[in-house]
Amino acid sequence: MKQQARFKRPNGRKRFKEIAIRTFTILSSLGAFGVIVATAYSFLISDTKLVYEKPYGRSYVFSLINDSPADIIVEKFKISYPDQPVIAKTTKDIYAQSKDGGLVMPGGNISTIPIIEFHELDGETISARDTHKFRLPPLNSRDYLQLEAAIFEITYEVTPKNKLLSYLDKTLKFVALRNEEESLRYIVVDNYWILTRSKSPYEAIRIACRDNDMLSRGDLCTR
């Protein structure tokens, strides 16, 4: 009786890892690819920077800075609003209506957060050594309501537009030598976006008031 041949399903992830590492090693060792490898290395050590610029009415102006020598594509740009207590105030006199034993604010008691619906940067190309300015929507949909303090998280992912650089970038991400995405947490106080590690808005406010002279004189810090 002939023994039946046994076939093993190839491990695609392991195979890709071996090819990626081998390709990166070969490109790094060949002098003919010196310029390409140098450019790739320069790109890989120059992370794209997100910078808060200024408020613009009820919106906010940010900049995404590409310091690398290669064009990049913004694969994803996401803003999230984690669960937290709402700290807000009205900016003008409003008149609530009495209904069913309660009070109803103008426009209803439920408002939306337009800023978390921002996706205009997805798929955007930023040229090498260029700065891309963009405007984020308001924090809430009511013009009479202002969030005095709130925590927002921004996550974004970029890749090189060049196919070879993109392959190198994916290889380093695959072997965990490079972060797949960047995540930043901000506390927004008086229309200023301040980087924070705190998940609690109250703790983030305390630290921001301690470290920032301009905020320390504000109403929120003197309560």
Set down the secondary structure blueprint.
Elements (H helix, E strand, L loop, with lengths): L11 H18 L4 H11 L4 E8 L2 E8 L5 E9 L6 E4 L6 E3 L2 E3 L20 E2 L3 E7 L8 E16 L2 H12 L7 E8 L2 E4 L5 H11 L1 H4 L2 H4 L1
Following the backbone from N to C, one meets helices and strands in this order, namely: HHEEEEEEEEEHEEHHH
* Main pleated sheet: 6 strands, antiparallel
CATH topology of one domain: Immunoglobulin-like
> Mind telling me the CATH superfamily name of one domain?
Immunoglobulins
Strand content: 25-35%
Give the proportion of residues in helices: 25-40%
Beta-strand segment tally: 11
- Just give the CATH class of one domain: Mainly Beta
CATH architecture name of one domain: Sandwich
Shape: elongated
- Which structural category fits the helices and strands? alpha+beta
Question: Radius of gyration, rounded?
Answer: 24 Å
> Helix count?
6
> How far is the first residue's CA from the last residue's CA?
88 Å
Taking pLDDT < 50 over at least 5 consecutive residues as the criterion, the unreliable ranges are 1-8
Average pLDDT number:
79
